[in-house]
Design goal:
Radius of gyration: 17 Å
Order of helices and strands: HHHHHHH
Number of domains: 1
Strand content: under 5%
Structural class: mainly alpha
Shape: globular
Number of strands: 0
Helix content: 55-70%
Distance between the termini: 30 Å
Largest sheet: none
């Protein structure tokens, strides 16, 4: 239970800290810490726990990103990120067997891809809700998607190391080293 609370507290600290981080120097993408912590939880924990963390992460994400535009109309509904985090967390959890074998390199790369996917879907939702509809793909959008994903993949390495170490010390994470790769 203490491990789950520490992950939830880490998600809260991550969402607060990411408001004080800027763009990744030279990449144009923002540093998003909340998805990194969430995707670790999705890789390490059973699926029901992933959905609980998806609710927490989605509500935290929407609290910081869903704002009314100049007309007082919201570009995205509050709570839509819960479904997004649940779906992407289920994808990450599908590779949990690899994580339990002690092989989490792929999860770090997938954290970057899925974090970039969050930014892409967020862009698509906002684009579809705006009037008049304009579906444009300027270079800045691709830089933000790719840069954010790359930053998340790089940050996933130390984050996964720390959370794995903590989980093993608390006895929550046990690697199955008897299974062949």
């Amino acid at each position: 239970m203490i491990y789950y609370l520490s992950l939830a507290a880490s998600m809260f600290l991550a969402v607060v800290a990411q408001h004080y981080t800027g763009q990744m120097p030279g990449l144009g993408g923002h540093i998003y810490l909340l998805p990194v912590v969430f995707f670790f939880a999705a890789a390490a924990l059973p699926l029901p726990s992933v959905f609980v963390f998806a609710v927490i992460a989605g509500l935290m994400w929407d609290s910081g990103t869903v704002h009314p535009d100049e007309n007082g109309k919201y570009e995205a509904a509050f709570g839509w990120s819960v479904a997004l985090y649940g779906a992407l967390g289920a994808v990450m959890n599908g590779l949990r067997a690899q994580y339990l074998r002690g092989r989490w390199e792929m999860h770090c790369l997938l954290t970057g891809v899925l974090t970039g996917t969050i930014v892409l879907i967020q862009y698509l939702v906002i684009t579809f809700r705006r009037e008049p509809f304009a579906f444009e793909w300027p270079r800045e959008v691709w830089q933000r998607i790719g840069g954010t994903g790359l930053a998340a993949a790089l940050l996933a390495i130390p984050a996964f190391s720390v959370f794995t170490w903590l989980g093993r010390r608390l006895g929550v994470i046990k690697f199955d080293t008897m299974r062949p790769d």
